[in-house]
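In this section we walk through a basic example: taking a raw amino acid sequence and producing a predicted 3D structure, encoded as discrete structure tokens. The instruction is simple. Fold the sequence below.
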Amino acid sequence: MGVFFGSKKVKHTDKQQGITRRDVVKGLSAAAAGTAIGGLLPGLGSLSMASTNGSPETTTARLGFIALTDAAPLFVALEKGFFAAHGMPDVEVLKQSSWGATRDNLVLGSRRGGIDGGHILTPMPYLMSSGAMSDQVDVSIIARLNLAGQCISVGNEYLDLEVGTDTSQFAEALAAKRAGGDEVRAAMTFPGGTHDLWIRYWMAAGGINPNSDIATIVVPPAQMVANMRVGSMDTFCVCEPWNHQLINQGIGYTANTTGELWHNHPEKALCLRNDYIEANPNATRAILMAVMEAQIYCEQPENKEEVAQICSRRRWIHAPYADIIDRMQGNFDYGTGRVVENHPDQMRYWNDHASYPFRSHDLWFLIENQRWGYLPQDFDNQALIDRVNREDIWREAAAELGVASADIPDSTSRGIETFFDGKVFDPEDPQAYLDSLEIKRMS
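The resulting token sequence is shown next.
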């Protein structure tokens, strides 16, 4: 697997877009951190067509989403008029029933009644572009939508254990249940996707082999709570609001929020089919700028209640506001008596470089897919990342939007990452990380 690109530096320029725009956009970081700047986002929107790169080639795109709170930037970009402000008034944001449906509609593309891109599990564009899990179609990542914010939940059958990040006692309980003749199951949302990788990592760290000690099943996010209610699984991993809804309905509890496994881990991405990008480079940047503004909006504490209300609407998540608001504001009641206010591992939409798609993070997802046998060991990870990760488009959009230089990373790598169990991932030596993992399934 060799040495990767972790120390690569990227030089970015700050093109003048006009003094009014530049002065306004310099406030982005402060605004996202919670400092009120009156009229910031409307001011940006009114200047959006001042681009020196030309008007969008089309005013439309069909973007898919799954009913999860990390899709909020897409909802907000449409509801608050950011797409329209950037010359894309005909963008459609379309609910998908599952990640499998998202994949199938991406394969179709909008010309055949499918979608052009949208909210996606970060590994999926790689699995699709490689042809590993679908008909091969070139799909690119143009931004990250969020960091962290997923959770692993456990049924109340195990409430006495108060399972957290340590699964050793949970492993014993599962083994006893299995020995009694009952099946044990862990649910995730898509093979090789982020939820699959988080729950596998968590179980394996505590000695549970997800390939032999428990059945790993696929359940669409919005069906997790109902399936836990009827005993279809013992544990699951998904985004909000379904983990908090599980608690509110008295069915289970939160073992951990996934940022406890890996602080500020990458999660969902914004993707587009390559044929859309190639035909519509200006529209691609316009979509991205609208979503970036929405990410900033979602990050601002004073907007959290409104964002939760938007998410709760029928056309978006269609879940009670009470299931969404607490964790949207960073407050976590685990359902075990443990309560953490302003959680350090709450979801980030913009802060901490949440929007930038680090190439080193994409490498980790590919290595984990090799770990679990979804990709072959001789797979050329770097070549695929060069094809799929379009952080260059993100940088172009950031410069055009006037994002502060502090919010634009200097490197395509975030560097060495450390996990809750002490494992270390160095993007310059991914093989050492893979070799350090005791439980794995290699193809």
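Looking at the output, two observations stand out. DSSP finds 19 helices and 14 strands in the chain. The chain has two domains: 19-148+265-412, 150-260. In the next section we compare this with other chains.
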